[in-house]
Design a protein that fits this description.
Oligomer: single chain
Structural class: alpha+beta
Helix content: 25-40%
Bound molecules: zinc ion
Radius of gyration: 17 Å
Largest sheet: 5 strands, antiparallel
Distance between the termini: 57 Å
Length: 124
């Protein structure tokens, strides 16, 4: 295989990655200070998230935390408050470690990509 094809392949795959991200991913960070907000019906945020999404991936097995990229047991996930660049707020499952690590200024500095299908709006 000739090396001269590589720049083309790299350019196409870069474009594809950008398109993919635009279509299916949202860039978000943990929201700052959300401790006083409660989910409806006395649910925890992760319970509320499961109810709204019907997502079985997080009921069993070892999902990947979108915030740190690590595989963790499902029981270690919480419903984290996240916010996108236009200040829209969502609930997104992340591991407990990330949820407690990214507070205040730490949260502001840590942006990550998450599948749009994992985000739900916060009820008002
Ligand atoms: Zn994590």
């Amino acid at each position: 295989m000739s090396k001269r094809f590589n720049p083309t392949i790299m350019a196409v795959s870069k474009e594809f990655e950008e398109l993919w991200n635009t279509l299916f991913q949202e860039r978000v960070r943990h929201d700052v200070d959300t401790s006083d907000e409660c989910a409806p019906n006395n649910l925890s945020w992760i319970e509320y998230w499961k109810q709204e999404t019907n997502n079985c991936d997080f009921s069993a097995g070892s999902p990947i935390c979108p915030s740190c990229g690590k595989t963790k047991p499902a029981r270690e996930f919480v419903g984290a408050h996240v916010i996108d660049k236009s200040n829209k707020k969502y609930i997104c499952p992340t591991c407990k470690d990330c949820n407690s690590k990214y507070k205040g200024d730490n949260a502001k500095a840590h942006w990550f990509n998450v599948k749009k299908s994992l985000l739900i709006s916060i009820p008002r």
